[in-house]
Records
---
Amino acid sequence: MSRRISQLATDQIRHARVVVLHAPQDVGDGQIRWSLSVVDLSGAVVARETVLAPDCPHPLTEVVRPYLDLIGRRVTGEWISDHDGQGQVRHRALIV
């Protein structure tokens, strides 16, 4: 099972390179429940959270900022949006 972001050790934080918002679920009232994963460059999940956010086009960086702040990371560059193997939308960005 993945750790929560707030539970990451320093060496795990060093390996965190990508943030992914995926597996969206509409929970009503204009809110979406997302899985937020922090992964290393091989795609292995370092940490995972469940987050609620306003439905897009809410700025994705604002959705993940409080979680990345916990580990001293931030989004760099543009978000890449595509679909995962199950056809669900996902959004990915590099973090530094």
---
Amino acid sequence: MKCTRFIVLSAAGTLFAGSAFAQLSQAPAARAQPVNAEVRGSDAPAFADIVKKHPGYLERSDVPRDDKTLAILRAHFKEADANGDGHVDEQEYKAYMAKSH
């Protein structure tokens, strides 16, 4: 009886350890994401690619609605506008997008 219990517990421990190891070995690959040269850790477009109307800054209405990567910027535009002037310049854009992703 004790021998059977030992075998069952050993088998269960081996299965548990094996599945935990398999998950750990896959985790780094799942977390690896491409790095955008413009904004680290984000798929957001470069600031220069979305600035169209005003040279050097964005207003909330300038942020494209059809770009899902910019939806968070549209939703939290006032937070991205660090100096509160109603515009997001390139430095504010880079800082906010790096922070939000």
